[in-house]
Write a structure and sequence with these properties.
It contains 3 helices and 7 strands; from the N terminus they run E-H-E-E-H-E-E-H-E-E. 28% of the residues lie in helices and 38% in strands. The chain has one domain: Hypothetical Protein Aq_1857, Chain: A (Sandwich). The strands form 2 sheets. It has a 4-stranded mixed sheet with strand order 3-2-5-4. It has 102 residues and is α/β, with parallel strands linked by helices. Strand 6 and strand 7 form a beta hairpin.
């Protein structure tokens, strides 16, 4: 699937670094999932923003229609239809210790 979202090299490095740590603990390959965390729905956070999760590579078949590629970098954009507009035509970057949409 063509990606509605680009992922910067800085964001890729941060995502991949986190996945390497998780993969070593889990013992399985992982596919990153880009998500939106809404502060209005989560009382313990102060502001809404992008977070990264992961699926196991074993889930690849069931995810096949949801896997997106940005120049060969595969990920799942796991957001509601309402939140998808936040990501359309944007670039996910990592600046100041957090993921941001530019």
């Amino acid at each position: 699937m063509k990606s509605p979202l680009k992922i910067s090299n800085a964001a890729r490095r941060e995502i991949d670094g986190g996945l390497v740590r998780l993969e070593s603990k889990a013992g399985v390959g992982l596919i990153p999932a880009v998500m939106w965390l809404d502060a209005n729905l989560n009382k313990d956070i102060r502001e809404s923003g992008v977070i990264i999760g992961a699926y196991t590579s074993a889930q690849r078949i069931e995810l096949s229609d949801k896997i997106i590629s940005d120049g060969g970098y595969e990920f799942v954009l796991l957001v509601s239809d309402d939140d998808l507009v936040r990501f359309m035509g944007k670039t996910l970057d990592f600046k100041g210790g957090r993921f941001v949409l530019l």
